[in-house]
Automatic annotation (TrEMBL):
Residues 315-343 form the DEAD-box RNA helicase Q domain. Its EC number is 3.6.4.13. It comes from Caenorhabditis remanei. Residues 1-189 are annotated as: Disordered. This is RNA helicase. It is an enzyme of class 3 (hydrolase).
Amino acid sequence: MGRDHKEHKRHRSRSKERKRSRSRSPRDRRDRDRDSRRDRERQRDYDRRGDDKMRDREKQRDADNKQRQQETKKESKSAVFEMEESRNDIDDILGMKDVDLEKEMERRRRNVELWRAKKKKDELDQASEASDDKNRKKKAWNLDDEDDEDEFDVLSQEKSEKSTENGQNIEKIDKKPVKMEEEDEEEDPLDAFMAEISKKNAKKSGNSGQKSSGVVTIIQEEKPEKEKGQLLENEDNMDMVIDDFDIETAAASLCHKGRMLAATDHSKVYYRKFKKNFYIETEEIKRMSKAEVKAYRDELDSITVKGIDVPKPIKTWAQCGVNLKMMNVLKKYEYTKPTSIQAQAIPSIMSGRDVIGIAKTGSGKTLAFLLPMFRHILDQPELEEGDGPIAVILAPTRELAMQTYKEANKFAKVLGLRVACTYGGVGISEQIADLKRGAEIVVCTPGRMIDVLAANSGKVTNLRRVTYLVLDEADRMFDKGFEPQVRSLLTVSYGFREKVEEKKVFSRKIKKSG
Ligand SMILES: Nc1ncnc2c1ncn2[C@@H]1O[C@H](COP(=O)(O)OP(=O)(O)OP(=O)(O)O)[C@@H](O)[C@H]1O
């Protein structure tokens, strides 16, 4: 069409030129007549062709418009429609005569108006359908009594708020009313809803006769969690811990559950050698004769020792190889000299020997194993990422575990060592976090320690670096039935895996330690 139009223009300008240069000769007149005839024919031909083309194009356009209107109705995107329309026919428009162009534009305006009217109608239809839907739903929940309806709305709103806060339990309850509508339209929705809640709660509490709400159940689930957090946050202040936990029952339950750790194939684990003898006898001790040693042991609450070449008891802290920092702590807490059990146990443990110490309550047994422990840890390579503790102190009760933790911390802080305390009856998450951060020393009760070791597929901590192990109040631990757990822990502890079967470690002769 564009080309035809240009040709037409060219033709007209040529005619004008010819008119201007018109001559009066007969030959010229003949030529002029012939030219003008030819021009007229061309014009007719051009008009005819134009008309045919126009008709075809209009037909095509009508068909296109019809199709486009149907598509657009689906998509409801007027901008796209107009853009496509313009893009497709821009060439046609450029090639049109003014009158045709006006007609065409008029036709298009009408089309657009028609389309807009139709679109508006569709939108109105959709809106009215949506509102019908809403009304239908609302109707399902409408109760005859206005007050009841308000009450239900509040209840429903509360439920939906709780569901976002507390998760699935309530969400399930919230979904019920909709289902109820599908099942039985005649049933009173509020009654059915409340009945459903009661049924669920009765199921949970195992009491079908009592009425209770889902909200109450959730609060009951959350409350202990918060309390646990508080206990653990105040871990440093042991006085804050409320002892409302029956350890005997818990121990029995642990044994009943028979929690054990999976056996470790030690042949597949690389264990590096470690040093455990740090004891250097001072000249003064070396010089003591057997008789002097016996006399001194008698002096120290008549200590009796069993074993081969048992080290001689020490007299001062300086004789057991404690460093200056440890010495300062001993001074700070006025531990002027070793107690009887300390005097004999410390050089024996420092020598790297296994020791069973039996002494009365309050005799200072804790420090007797703590001081050699610090010396031992300080001599080991530092903990690396993913390493578990170097020393583990197992205690039968959480009270004892916390007491030992407190005592150990007096020294650990100045030595730059970390102590973690892990015991049952409180939340496990904080304890896991402590262990994950890394601790050279772990004071724990056996059941909880197994739980922690088993947690997260054994990724929380491990005992592969344990080269110092204490069974504090071992007799009590066994009396409580912890022996299987203790054995289990020993089998996965680096320095003790082969000692599990040694009778002396689990000797039933360990009767009274306090
Ligand atoms: N060498 C020491 N000099 C002075 N006080 C000490 C010494 N060693 C420990 N103590 C203190 O004696 C008290 C009792 O010590 P410890 O708790 O270690 O005794 P225990 O034998 O472990 O008691 P239990 O059997 O109850 O566990 C603690 O307060 C501790 O700080």
